[in-house]
Amino acid sequence: MSNAFTTSPKTFSSASSTHSRIHSSSGTDRDGLLLQPRANGLRSGSFSSISGSAVVPGSYTSALRTITAPSIHTNVDPDHSNTSTPQTPEKQLEELTQQLNREIKFKEGAENMLQALDSKKLKEAKVARSKAEMELSAVNAKIAQLKQQMEVIKKPRDSPVAARSADSFTGGSTRPVSNGTIIGEATTTHEADAESPTWSLSEILQSLEEKGRKPEFYVEKANSLALLFKRHPMLKYDLVWSEFGQRIQSMLLNGNREVVAAGYRITRYAITDLESLRTIRKLQTDYLTINSLAKDPKNTVEREQALKFVRAFLEVKGGVKEISRGVVRAIVSCAEQENDRLRGICLETLAELLILDASLVVSAGGVRVLSQVLYEGPYELSETLAMAFLYLLDMPATRKYIRAGHDMEVVFSAFTDSFQKVNIEERLKSSAKVVSSMLKSWPGLLCLSMFEMRALRSLVEALRIPSPGVRDIILELLFDIFHIKSPSWSSSFLAGRRLTTYGRVANLKSEAKDSTSTKSEDKTQSNLVEHFTALLLAVFIEAGLLKALMMLVEDTSDSAIVRKTTLLLGEVLKLASRLLPNTYNIKIQLLPELFCSAARFGIDRFAASSAVYQIDSLNRTLHRSLPTTAAPQRLSLDDERRGQRQVEQVKIKLNMQVDETHFRGLLMDCGVLGSSNYSKWNWDMVTEIIQGPLINWKRLEEAKSTKFLKRLLSFYRPFKHKFSDILNTKPNQRYVRVGCALFNTMLASPEGVKYLSGNKLLFQISECLAQLDPMSGISSPDPILSRARLSDTLSSGYFTLLGTLSSNPKGLQMMQTHRMFNMFYHLSDLTDRDDLIIGFLKPMDYTLEGHPRVIFSKALTTGIRNVRLWATNRLRSLILAANEPSSVNTKHHETAQWAIRLLVTQLYDTDVEVCETAVRILEEACNVTHNLEYVVKCRPALDHLGEIGAPLLLRFLSTSVGYYYLNELDYIEKEMDDWFHGRNDSYVLTVEASLARAFADDEPFRKKEIDREAMSLVPPHFYRELARTEEGCTLLREKGHFWEFAWFIREHGLEDTDIEIVTKVKGCLWAIGNIGSMPLGAPFLDEADIVGTVVEIAEQSQVLTLKGTAFFVLGLISKTMQGLEILLEHGWDGTTTTMGEPLGFCVPLKLGQLLSVQPWKHVSDDSNEKGRAGMLSSSPLDDPMNNKILTSIVNLSNHILENAATKELMRIKSTHTNYFVSSALYHQVMSLLESYRFRFQVRRQIIELFPRTVLEEIVTEGMRDVVGMEKLSRSSTLEEEEERNGIGNGMGMGVAMGGGYASSVAESYSSYRNRSRSRSVRSRGSVSTMSRGSVIEEGFVFS
Q1: How would DSSP label each residue in 750-766?
Q2: C-alpha–C-alpha distance, residues 599 and 622, integer Å
Q3: 544-557 mean pLDDT
Q4: Of the segments 164-178, 885-899, 968-982, which one has the largest average pLDDT value?
Q5: pLDDT value of position 320
Q6: pLDDT digits over 700-749, tens only?
Q7: 1124-1161 burial, b for 16+ CB within 10 Å, e for fewer?
Q8: Is 619:656 a contact under the CB 8 Å cutoff?
Q9: Average pLDDT estimate for 5-21
Q10: Contact 484, 468 (CB under 8 A)
Q11: Which of 12-21, 224-233, 289-298, 415-424 shows the lowest per-residue confidence on average (mean pLDDT)?
Q12: Across residues 105-118, what is the average pLDDT?
């Protein structure tokens, strides 16, 4: 939802290039002049790593080009060029990550195979088991290798410059280039650094002055010059344009296309600021660019560099104002050509220009082309271009350029026109993505709701089209825009299976419990995404969604569509009951049309009855599978777990009452007594014996008299190499679980403790630790607890067994008796065995005071970075375990306090990431009141963390204890003034960025760990935390900030022109909304009488994102009962639970009050009539033939008159050739190309009417103007210096090239060096490998 709020042009400029600048493909930069051939067809965008090279002005990716150009250098081998292009570390990491994910899937498959083979007989599964274990071993080895490679790449290189220097003097290997030139790998770096950049510049410019050289010579020098500008960025500020411009002109006017492209490239690198753009334009680069873009599409090199040159204007602040309408017309003509190789990047450029200067693109006819792309493709760009339109729709000043009800609604025609069409799936999916992005933004939703929801009704009615493809894509679209996550059993339901299997629902319950138990959120925070979804749901219900879904349910022509529709209908009803007020639910929950059809006797009755049954069954399943937080009226989580524990206790009691005969039978049946081969044992029965009869001390004594316990404990002894050599797979984890159960059973009775302490198992585990202890004197060539064995075998299970011992005081005593803690104190100092430290600390029980806590504290503070970071995250689970309702034991709360104390110490860690992690965990822990009070009691100092610790300080304000603590630190007064004078405005950007991430597609964020639910919540706000306490409200009343916010909202609430004022209004709205969301802050709303003004903004504002902000603020106000009452008086209803508690969602009783966007007057294309009337008017002084030529050229823009006009121009040119060598007529024709729309071929035809000498003459005149202005500027500068210094002799004048230019540049070198040192921007970037006869840079090879 990047357009859910007003997006800045700079933000869009980077965000709009979904397939471009940010995600460029490695090896396809094409910033130079050698183009590698690629396959035809539009490339699908792939999210790759950012290129390691420096970003140059106007650069873009080639992912959007339709087809590629042939190589322009016949002596260059493209295959060799491709292989020589190095991959960036980010690209290598991405490829290794993909390989690692594949190998992990293979590993899971092998583990599942082994688990399945366990149920078969040993003889039948022996061969398959051995094969599966071999595959698993190979996969584990591959995974370890990939992880090692990734670690090597992630490690920063210590001194790449030093390494490169060493290679320079060692005579490194050389590699041949296809043209026969040998490129040494140790030549240019030190030479380039040792040589003065000014003399290098002088030498290159002198070389470019030479006439009659081959094109390869000029290209090589241009590449060297571009490299020089990249290595010395400040050098271009000292250019003498009267001389440098001549070199540019000579290259841009060259007859060779590679030389022209090189000219554009060095011109792009020479751009510094807005003044340099104006100087460059005086060289008539507009005409040159228009000529280049109008050339044959085969001239890809020149046209591409010309387009990059234009895009470089966008990188300069205010540079878009220097782009002429004629240039934009040329870009539009390229974008209209479906087979043009540059079409994709032309469309992207037009989209960026539309954001930065909409009037320029509109006057050049670009909106029509962009709107056509939304409908016809290329589909990779449709969603990006839709964002540009949504940005324009926000403000009235830019909204006028979009046709209401046409430019955006054209996307919906893909659904309504798809009946009886074939091969439209790609177009439907693209349109669905565009519609989804529109409906996740305020401008899109409000504008699509115009004209009585015409567009949305057409989408809903498209469900009635009897096309399974259309219906399926629309249903998927509805799942997406409502943010419905299908339950885990949905695939079984959609496949036609019944929902009577309890196991699936039980599994879903456990998943829901796990997901809810791992998160602890502030109940007072509002979910903005769910509030927006509530409005979307209300809008679609108003558009007739439920009727269309019920119609689909009754249609039995496609059972798969019926099941998916039934699932969607059930989810919509569940969502409506949770998000919408009762005034809406009363109308929709009954499904009156469906019940009427089911009650009506007839043929269709059975389909309706079946639909009712399916919906009822589905709702009951969803009802049972709801987590506790979503269904407070059901049994609490504590009650359900208590019931499970009671069932388990009953089973244990029954198993304990086994008599002697039955017990002996169980011992014989389990197979332990009959064989020492553990693979022949019945491990399920072994588990039943351990957790049942052995709890009874009598049965334990009987087991001791047999070989049961001896063989079982012998299996776990490390040096028996049974348990310790088993592969570490998911099915084999049952052996670890059985061992933990055995330890628990033995620790439950004195006889078991005595037997376990005397067994060799603990002695051998202690010896395994001693093998790694450097102070024990014991070593082994293959330790049991080596890194490889811990990852590949069940040797890591010994730590789990020790964790079971640590949960019991007697177990801790046994570990201390065997000196395990002493050895691990020594092992914790090892810096190369973080896996050993983490493996030991992870299963330990920390509820008891003892050595595990001391060792954990030591690793937390003195361990290496990875260990400290892991230990900090481990504390989170200890705190959350104490927050569970079932944790009534005081030991858990004491453990949580111990964890909080350790987290406070982590705030002073030397690593920033560790500090950030500690702050995040403490902030989450503060959602529980007693945790918050204890954190404040620890009195942490957060000044050294700056912005990192700000969220935690805000949480302290929510209690009186924290308020007084922060007041002592003088934090509240300073922070309050800071928020009042500016932080409110920045908070607006924070909310918009969070919502943009929450509404964005999943694909860009799969590689990043982003919590979508956290992004959908209202970010922390100072005034909200302040309003939680009486002391904070008193201070707020004394300062009077709330009334200041209310006054500003009343005065400027309906502002629709000034963006800064609109942003400030948004900030004030968020401030009063956060204050009003608190019970103690709600009275401020009534006192200031501000709710009515907020409702007025939501219903009448012409800024669509401001309407959305007001809507969200009304949701915050509805968090309290007092706010709900005030909203009901203004015609808005809120959502409450069954117990009457407000949820923070509200919608207007009449949706038309909010969806009140009135149609606007459209400003059409070509509205700028600059020069048209005067151009075609005749006067007595004008030449009739001149006017006739201009008239014929204008007629070429009319496809009806085009043929006649073409013949007329050919006739005039053959009879009056002298007219077509006039520079005045050329200027007039270029004005016509700027004012009228011509097809690409026609533009090329018009330009070819004039010989190239005319353009050379015009460019030469432009050079004279540049020289004259530079002389005037220099003379004025010299006069100022004479007046200031009393010196009458000018020292900085540039002279002609020969030797004069070098001396003038040398004189300015000292100022260049001083400026480069002061700005610290001297770049030593990567220098390409060069030899005397060739240059290689950015994929270009020229000799």
Answers
A1: HHHHHHHHHSHHHHHHH
A2: 25
A3: 85
A4: 968-982
A5: 92
A6: 888 888 888 899 999 999 999 999 999 989 889 999 999 999 999 899 88
A7: bebbeebebbbbbeeeeebbbbbbbeebebbbbbeeee
A8: no
A9: 39
A10: no
A11: 12-21
A12: 76
Instruction: Look up residue 453 and give its two tokens.
Output: 């929801």
Q: Is 1030 exposed, middle or buried (0-12, 13-18, 19+ CB in 10 A)?
A: exposed
The set of residues, in sequence order, having a beta carbon less than 8 Å from that of 1029 and lying 6+ positions away, is: 957, 958, 959, 960, 963, 1080
The helix/strand/coil state of 1168 is coil
Question: Which among 590, 598, 556 has a CA at the least distance from the CA of 573?
Answer: 590
d(CA 840, CA 842): 6
Residues in a beta bridge with 1336: 1341
Q: Going by C-beta distance under 8 Å and a sequence separation of 6 or more, which residues neighbour residue 711?
A: 672, 673, 676
- Please tell me whether the overall predicted TM-score, pTM, comes out greater than 0.90 for this model: no
d(CA 828, CA 840): 10
Instruction: Name the H helices within 926-999.
Output: 929-937, 950-956, 960-968, 971-978, 984-999
Smallest Cα–Cα separation from 285: which of 277, 297, 294, 274? 277
Per-residue pLDDT for 1068 more than 90?
yes
On whether the CB atoms of residues 1303 and 1295 are closer than 8 A, the answer is: yes
Helices (H), 1177-1333: 1184-1195, 1202-1215, 1223-1235, 1240-1247, 1252-1285, 1300-1319
Please report, rounded to a whole number, the percentage of residues in the chain having pLDDT higher than 90.
31
Instruction: For residue 704, give both structure tokens.
Output: 């001791």
Radius of gyration of the chain (CA): 38
Give Cα separations from 727 to 114, 137, 143, 797, 801 (angstroms). 11, 8, 15, 11, 17
Q: What is the mean pLDDT of residues 1239-1266?
A: 85
Taking a C-beta distance cutoff of 8 angstroms, is the pair 247, 218 a contact? Answer: no
From the number of C-beta atoms within 10 Å of its C-beta (0-12, 13-18, 19+), residue 377 rates as: middle
Amino acid at 497: R
Q: How far apart are CA 878 and CA 858, in angstroms?
A: 17
Tell me how far CA of residue 1115 lies from CA of 536, 632, 878, 1049, in angstroms.
Answer: 14, 21, 35, 17
Which of the four pLDDT bands, split at 50, 70 and 90, describes residue 130? confident
Identity of the amino acid at 746: M
Q: How far apart are CA 988 and CA 901, in angstroms?
A: 35
pLDDT at 365 over 50: yes
In whole angstroms, give the CA distance from residue 1083 to residue 1122. 8
**Quick one: DSSP state of residue 556?**
-
β partners of residue 1136: 1142
Cβ contacts of residue 423 below 8 Å, gap of 6+? none
Residue-level pLDDT at 1299: 39
pLDDT digits (tens, 9 = 90+) for 375-393: 887 888 888 888 999 999 9
Residues 365 and 353 sit within 8 Å (Cβ to Cβ): no
